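INFO worker-7 received task bundle
INFO bundle size: 2
INFO processing item 0
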Amino acid sequence: MSVKVECVVKDRCEIGEGPVWEEKKQSLLFVDISGKKIHSWNPATNQKDTVITEKFVGFAVPRQSGCYLIGEGRRFGALDWESKSISTIALIDEDKPNNRFNDGKVDPAGRLFAGTMAMEERPAVLELKQGSLFSLNKDHSVVKHFDQVDLSNGLDWSLDHKTFYYIDSLTYSVEAFNYDINSGSISNRRMVYKMEEGEGIPDGMCIDADDRLWVACYNGGRVICVDPQKGVRLRTVKLPVDKITSCCFGGKEYSDLYVTSACMGMSEAEMAKQPQAGSVFKLVGGHGGGRRDGWKRRLDVSIARGAVGHVALGPGDTRQSRQHDLLSGHMLSCVEF
């Protein structure tokens, strides 16, 4: 089946990332990490609305209330789009001021998983083993699942919710964990796909209606479709730019694959050869479409002054747990789906 590749958002993001389809608004939400921007683009009108952040923003996800939860710098924050205001929910990696959030995604039960990394000296060049994987739970606790991460990136869950897929980019692989949907715990870490020569660095990813992973290939100029059960690549779709960063399914029937890209670090000569670098692309055809429950993952964060967030420690973290004072408190609940 042939694939049509169309450049749909022609803005030049420094690091376009974290695409999320908003069912209610029929819009695409995505961020420009180093550009410190959160974008909402409506395909029907071709209109784009933007919120500016103070620090690098790794992700933004919708809340049930209609607002958003973001990862900005080293904080989980609640964004009110109308007022453009951001309230702190929890601070992480307080002993590593050079860290920041990167990719994040909501699990099928409404928890938010997100990872950190050190600030880059230049694209994909950074202090290693500084990042961790966290989750933000209903009771406003933050769980640290593991550390020693180089560059925390793509994540998603299998259709039966029993497997969590994860990418630490500089391992050049996709990993899987057993997943307990009730507790949010992960176990039995193993590799399910090793990147091949020429495929680049694995970045963001999503899962389709057939339980196959679609992986964005940074410096590889492509997205690849992987069967995680067999550990094989099923399909490669090449794009007109090299720095492919992430992808998600969207559109009314979830039949479109939206793909983000970056231009940070490119020379003028490279930009002349790839004038669409940093744009958002739409891939039509060549895939079975996205899962229909993905848009239903929503967080409902109510802000109430004076609360304190607790950080729970995951396996392998021997430091004592501690309370984190927040600029404002919150309560977290997840929607039913």
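INFO item 0 finished
INFO processing item 1
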Amino acid sequence: MTMTRRALLATGGLGLGLAAVTPGISAAVTSPRRRPRVLLATNEPWGTYHAQPLLAEAAGRGWELVQVVPDRSRVTPTDPVQVATLADVPRADLLVVNGAGDWPADVAAALRRLPLAASSLAYLQPVEAPRAKEFRDRLELATAASPAEAEVFAAHLGLRRRVRMVGSPQTDTLPVHRPQDGRVLVLTSVTRPDPTGGAAPGTQLLLDAAAKLEAAGKHIVVGLHPREDRTLWERYEISPVPSVQASATAECAVGIPGTVFPIVAAVGVPLVGCVDPALTVPDYILDVCSSTIDGPDQAVGAVGNARPARRGAVFAAVGPIGGSARRLYSAWHAAIISARRPFAEPAQAA
């Protein structure tokens, strides 16, 4: 009599037995005590900076987080995020997408046997993505940082069910705000699109605003977006640490409103948004700004009058502060359990 895989699972004989009869499955992978593994695919295909705030919690739990990328051409050897391509993706417990762009949709289609979750890790537009319908019905779970982000994420995915609020992992280790007089943090976006992702308008406005602030005696420190062209900003001091850490010593931050704005607002730093007429961002990001400007001559006055965001606006944008990575991983763990698939593997490459 030949025992089927279903029968083998039912009798608890997964472990070494299944490893022996199924090529490519190691005893370590199939052991009940094996290390849980989550795959991540993002709208910005090589955007490993979305995964970096999640690494500490993964390590603390003994989990493995692997970002699926199209190839390794845009991943540096020093990048702390483990990556894989669809050609060598490891077996895993869960696939997480951070949106319904082309790359996450492609990965979801290729790994159609994996349980699937969606977690918002960067701002999106509140419009259903064309490819959301391809995998929406497979979702075990959807999460977002805050009430406002959850509403936008639901619209992006075309979801009618609840998006769980978990907070933003970037707020788990916020620095203490100790502003230095005259120090202004300039928060860039991305000036030119590349294969990883698009760009946001407003760089010239921000450059001109920074020049006005410097002429008024402000000390300019630039917090670069990971994909921004560094050469545009080399006349100023460029922060050697990420923007959220750099904000701890700023009396104000001015920049193109984006994902980092609510996190900096949570530090307690007043924000001034440089808003080009072509810029489109969700309202909750603009709501954490003390004011917005559309001309460089307004910069000095706006920075001088800037005040920290209201607590309600911060909560709407980032959700509960502290323990967010723990809540996110707990939600992923629940999704793995609820999928009731004790064995999951990637689809074979065509």
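INFO item 1 finished
INFO post-check item 1: Confidence is low (pLDDT under 50) at residues 1-31.
INFO post-check item 1: Residues 183-318 form a domain with the Rossmann fold fold (CATH 3.40.50.2000).
INFO worker-7 idle
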